[in-house]
Amino acid sequence: MAPGAELPSTIPSVTTATGMRERVCRAAAQLLLEDERVSIVLGEISIPYFEEAFRRAPERIFNVGIMEQTMVGVAAGLAMEGFHPIVHTIAPFLVERPFEQLKIDFGYQELGGTFISVGASYDYVVEGTTHHSPADVALVSTIPGFEVLVPGTATEAVSLLRASYASNRGKYLRLSERQNPISHEVQPGRTEVLRRGASGATIIAVGPMLRPVQDAMEDIDATLLYVTTVAPFDSVTVAREAGDHVIVVEPFLQGTLAASVMECFGSRPVRLTCIGVPRTNFRTYGSREDLDVVAGLDVPTLKRRLYEALETRGAASTRAV
Amino acid sequence: MSGLNRDEVVRLASLATGDEKHEVSSYSTLDVLMVLYGRVLRFDSDRPDWEERDRFILSKGHGPSAFYAVLAARGFFPEEWLSTFMAREGRLGGHPDRRLIPGVEASTGSLGHGLGLSVGIGLALRAKGLEKQRVFCLTGDAELNEGSNWEAILVAPQLRLSNLTLVVIDNHSSSIPMGPWEDKFMSFGWHARAVDSRDHEQLYGALSYRDAEWPAVVIADVQPVGG
After folding, report:
1. Any B CB within 8 A of A89 CB
2. If you classify domain A183-310 with CATH, what class do you get?
3. Which of B19, B64, B107, B161 would disulfide-bridge B122, Cβ 3.0–4.6 Å?
C-alpha cells in the first residue's frame, strides 16, 4: 500500500449526535435485561437512563447513593457470586476515591467487573479540579489484570462494553464528552492502523484524540495508529508498525502511556514524544473547548506541538502553521 | 453438624503460630469461629464453592491462625499446611488469600473491605433465590473506625438485607470509643445484640438468629488478655 493512503481495515460509520453517556447507559440497561448474570451498581448518577431496568429487574440493579467504597465493594461481592457487575459514576469518584477497593476487591481477588466513568479529564470544566480526573488511566493501569478501554465515539463505547462485560477481569471504560465524528470497528485489545507513512514518524491517537490528530496532521507524513485499549497495550502492532519516532496523543495525563509504548521496543532506539493533559490544577472555567486550549489539546496547538516534535526530521511539511 | 473440639482447634492453631495453648486460647476470634464453624454455618469442605453454603467473610484478616485452625479442623485443607504458616513454601499468609486457600471466600487484610463485599454477597444470594443462605462478616471493634464500614452499615438496612449478619469482635482495641454499640447500630436500622464471647450458648443464640427484615449485628465482647 502506498504511504499516506487510508487503510480500509475499518468500516467507518457516522456517529449519531447522542453522547457516550446516554448511549452506554442505555446499552448497560439493555444488557441487564438480556443477561441474567449482569448486575448494575450506580453511584447516584444517570438514574433516568435506568428507569426501565429498575422496574423490570430490581433484584439486580442498585443505586447505593454517594458511598463509593461500598459501591465498589458491593459490586465485588456480586462478582464473587458469579455476576458481571457494571459500576458507574464520575471518574474521580469511581477511580481515585475507592482506588483501594478496585485494587484489592477486584484486582487482588481477580474478579470481573466493568467500571464506566463519565467526566473524562476536565470534562466537568466548570466544577473545577475536584471533578477532574486526568490521572484515572494511569492509576487503573497499575492494577494487575485490569483492562482500560478509551473509546472515541458512543458507538465504539457500546461495542467495547458488549464485547468485554462478561470477561473475568476488571474493565475500566472511560467515556468522554469529546467524540470523533466517525466510528471504527474497534475490539478490545486491538490497535487500528489508519495510515502508513514513509517518514518513520508514528502518531498514536488514543480514543477521542483521533479526530483532533487527523485535523492537525494534514500536512504531516506519518503512520497513524488508533488505540482504544490502552491496557493491556497492543505491543505487537505498535512494535510492528512504529518507526523511530513515536508521538502519543493521549486524552489523559501526559506520559500515562510512556512506559507501555517504550516497552514495545526492547533495545530498539525509539524517540518518544507524549502529548496529553498537563500535570496542573486547572483554574479556568468556561467550555470544554476553552480548557482544550489551556491544556494544549485544541487543534491549532496540537498542530504546533506535532510540528515542533517533528521539525528536526523533515516529516512535517515546511509550510508555516 | 457436630461441634468442634476446642482442644483440637487450639492444638492446630499452635501448629501454625508456635504459641502456647493458653496463648492460643486467648485469640480474640477463637470463640466466635468455634461456634460458627461448629454449629451455625452450613458448608461442605469437599466442595468449598457449594452454591448452598453460607458465606463467611473474615474482614479482620489479621491474626488468622484461629481461622486457619478451624478450616483445617473442618477438613478444608490438610493439617500439614499449618506448619508452613507464613513460610516461603506455604499457602497460609499473614492475611488469608482466596486464590490460595480452600474455604476462604475473600482476600482481606486492609481493614474495612469485608462488609461491603458481604452486602454485595447478600444481594447476590437474594437475586439467585438462595433464601435460606446467609452471609456472615467478622470485623474487629477498631476496624469499625474505617468509614467504609459505616457506608455499608447505612445501606444494608435500606436494602432489607436480613441474610446479613455482622459479627464485631470487641476486644477493646479501638483508641476511639466505639460504643454504645447496640444503640448505635439500632439507630441505623440493624437488629443488634451484645454477648459475652465466652458464653457459647449466648453466642450460638445470637448467631443463629435471623430477623425477618433487618440485618443483624452481634457484638461479641472479648476481654483483653489479663483483663
Report:
1. no
2. alpha beta
3. B161
